[in-house]
Amino acid sequence: MYWKRLFLILICFFGFNFTVHAQEQSSPILKLDAIADQALQLTKMARYDDAKQLLEYFSDEFTSVTLQEQVFTMDEIRIITVSHHQALQAVKSPSLEKQNKVDAVISFRLVMDALTSQYEPLWTGMREPIMNAFQHMKEAVETGDKENYHELLNYFLAKYNIIQPSLKLDIPVEKLQEIDAKIDYIELNRSNLQKNEQAFAELESDLQKLFDGVEEDETDPSIWWVIISTGGIIISTLSYVGWRKYKGQKEHKKPKKLND
């Protein structure tokens, strides 16, 4: 009987969490995020007409959501609008290479994920290509390989530009401005390798902190509340069951003593 009560309590608890999760899944922001993801998959498959139609459908849904509900700030609306426009123009361009089209839609997809992700955002998955490009670029500077350096710098800038819009949603403005300023400085002085050595050292540290900081903070503090709440319910229930069992055994022994 007591174990049945424990089972019912746990069912109610997890059932509540499931209901909350289902409500979150039906939110308009998650619907927009799903459309962005589908547009990316179509672009990767070179189904540009379908991707175009889906991005246009996103525009209609986004307009409807922003008019009916205040779910986005003005900065978020601006970032979404710009990244969406760039993605749409990319898939519509007949002359743009496939990789450039995919990169534009990835950037848009990462923006939507940054708005919906509660833990580690998708843009952190760009750490390896960005940091690898940076390391090769730094080696080219050290060896004085100008030709290879320019190619690597262009590749690095292309990869960083993919995540830059989503960084605006996840990183403090002042910190992002510092990173962007150093990247702009390196690009402006691309012909002077020696002048960039100090900027490279500072930028490398900033990029490492950028990715490391997100990984350290990926556990939502609310998760600990859930863990503590769950543990508290189970401990309290088990304590109650144990107390009732002890009380029942004690009462069961009393008649024997009286009979003696």
Automatic annotation (TrEMBL):
The chain crosses the membrane at residues 223-243. The keyword Transmembrane helix applies. The lineage of its organism: Bacteria, Bacillati, Bacillota, Bacilli, Bacillales. NCBIfam families: spore_ypjB (TIGR02878). Keywords: Membrane, Signal, Transmembrane, Transmembrane helix. InterPro entries: Spore_YpjB (IPR014231). This is Sporulation protein YpjB. Pfam families: Spore_YpjB. Residues 1-22 form the signal peptide. It comes from Oikeobacillus pervagus.
